[in-house]
Records
---
Amino acid sequence: MPSAQTMKLRSQNYQENVLKQGKVPKSLLKKEEKLPVGPVLLGVFLFVVVGSALFQILNVASSGQEV
């Protein structure tokens, strides 16, 4: 079992934290602005998807096939 002094210190720290509730500095908050995918990878993905869609549209239009 912890000593009385340890319990007193823990209790003081808890009380201080309770009084600071809602006043946490921004550096302690989690950063949610981080993107899961980098901008370069996102650009390459969009280039491939949009490029392939345009290529398919042009291919169908030039061959005269109906979809």
---
Amino acid sequence: MIFKLTSKNRLIHVTTWTICILYFFISYFLLWWDCRPKHVTPYEPIIGSLSITICCYLIYSTLQYYLPRKNQYLKITLICLVLTVMSVGLSIFFLNQFFDDFSLAHFYEVLPYRFIINFLLLLCVIIINIFWNIQEEYEENKRRKDESERILRDAELYNLRQQLQPHFLFNSLNSIIALIGTKPDEARNMTFQLSDFLRGTMRKDDKQLIPLMDEIAHLKLYLDIEKVRFGHRLTTIFHVQEEAERSKVPSMIVQPLLENAIKFGLYNVIGHVEITIDITLSNHMLSITITNPFDTDQFETKKGTGFGLTSIQRRLFLLYSRTDLLETSMKDNIFTSTIKIPQYD
């Protein structure tokens, strides 16, 4: 199990002084047990615990960023041996300074056991320190990877948005050009509506998800632009479930589908065309279904580059890491496309 450390320095101090206190009490207890009923002084336990504490701090300071490579276990063992000799040497040095012959004599008696205990204790501290460093390296690499993927994903989403806007703009300008000669007033009206539509689009550039009702208002503005060209031939009906009104969707995710519906439902087709947009929410999944009629004879000849559907599929994958959120079907001259938007909030 990997523990996430909130403050490594604090944990180092707590661990080191916990080792110091436990080492002192255990050493003092063993000294009292071996020498009873004689009176014992706490010099040896105090000096031994302080020596091991100094060595622990040396480990944390010198191996703070150390990550051993493969087959470097001998190096770790040698470091531990050097620190063990240092801890024992410090104890002998300070005991000599206090002229405590009894404590010094007892220390020499238990020296082999003390050496082994110090070695194992310092080896555990070294291993724990290395595990901390490995965890920090793992967390840092993971953070950098996630940040890199996020930047790349945002850049690709932005690129898709920038491609989508000219795609719609060129189509709208062609419609305006077609109306200038025959219906100049409607061409002027369509120009104003296009200006409002693009202004609303630019305001949404900094948001990946927007409220559903804002997206619907944007779609209606787009449909108003198309109705200038097609007039009474185009009818659109929105069915929005009340529970779905507070949902959020990716900005401009539905507009390419409406554009396809108008393209295959109205271009080169005579008569009235009705496009329906059904929006429902169930089990935290928002479903947006667009249906439109199409002429089977015209459908094959009107196939384009598929940029609209491809961009939607790609955006949904980048945002939700799923490839099953866009579905299309054709039955009885009715083309149906459905977008599913997970609602995590």
---
Amino acid sequence: MRLVSTSKFPALRLTALRFPVAAALALLGMLALAPAAQAANPLEMNFWLSGPRYDGNLPACEAGLTSVTYQFGEKEGTFWNSALRITGYTQLREVAFRPWQSDNIPRRYCAAEAHLNDGKVRPVYFSIIEDGGLAGFTDGVEFCVVGLDRNWAFNPACKAAKP
């Protein structure tokens, strides 16, 4: 097998340089001929595109306990094949309400001590989220029981469930 030097074939060298230059020029030509972006017309701006209107009317922390109890039991029974359930709560308190800018989705952060049916008491952190439920029609609840975050969604030690 014999290697051929391109210095003996200047036409081969020029062909190799022409392709990238031609491709770049073609791309620039297409971009120059593309229509300019236009702002939305009044119909597009005002017809079903008004965006979310959060008013921040969230229930107190007590309203989220039923959901936390149900979701915890469902998760333990369905995914972890466990009979562990929450039997009660103590030391319920609000941790924060809308801790960030007012443009964010309103959330009420709460903490409590959860009493489990195995006799242990564990901290639980949860948030009530405006329009965070199914399809945004109801308020949603996210929670984490310290030591029982088995899929590590809020690890370490439920830190991601806090504000």
